[in-house]
UniProtKB/TrEMBL annotation:
It catalyses: 2 [molybdopterin-synthase sulfur-carrier protein]-C-terminal-Gly-aminoethanethioate + cyclic pyranopterin phosphate + H2O = molybdopterin + 2 [molybdopterin-synthase sulfur-carrier protein]-C-terminal Gly-Gly + 2 H(+). Its EC number is 2.8.1.12. It comes from Limimaricola soesokkakensis. This is Molybdopterin synthase catalytic subunit. Converts molybdopterin precursor Z into molybdopterin. This requires the incorporation of two sulfur atoms into precursor Z to generate a dithiolene group. The sulfur is provided by MoaD.
């Protein structure tokens, strides 16, 4: 299990290659990479803050729960912090399991957790100002599935 909270960029393809290399015991590997996007046409960058130590511990706890619940062979969570320009990867999740449903469900669970509950604070910086991003009702609904 690899969990990384980092400021620098990562190569999702290289991470997935390393994660999946030599895995003969699994029938499914699922990955997701979140990208900084401009929903409203004015985003300059996203700034993500976190508390070192606390963030990694919280992600590790939820990752262990996912690993046990879906009997994962392995999982990967990468989440960036700092100033991220448009088009840059923010986070990545990968799960490896014997069966695809377990791999998909575990990946979605981790993504939902990271989006709404992981201790990150996200600020959108636009051409006209800046504002903190809050969880939406849709984000909360997604978590209620689990």
């Amino acid at each position: 299990m690899k969990i990384s909270v980092q400021e620098g960029p990562f190569d999702a393809g290289a991470e997935l290659d390393a994660f999946s290399h030599g895995r003969h015991e699994v029938g499914a590997i699922v990955s997701f990479t979140g990208i900084v996007r401009d929903r409203d046409g004015g985003l300059v960058r996203m700034e993500i803050e976190h508390y070192p130590g606390m963030t990694e511990k919280a992600i590790a706890e939820i990752a262990e729960q996912a690993k046990a619940r879906w009997q994962l062979a392995d999982l990967l969570v990468i989440h960036r912090h700092g100033a991220l320009p448009l088009g840059q990867p923010i986070m990545m999740v990968a799960t490896a399991a014997a069966h695809r449903r377990a791999a998909f469900d575990a990946a979605e669970y981790l993504m939902d957790y990271l989006k709404s509950r992981a201790p990150f604070w996200k600020k959108e910086v636009t051409r006209t100002g800046e504002h903190w991003v809050e969880a939406t009702p849709e984000d909360e609904d997604a978590l209620s599935r689990w």
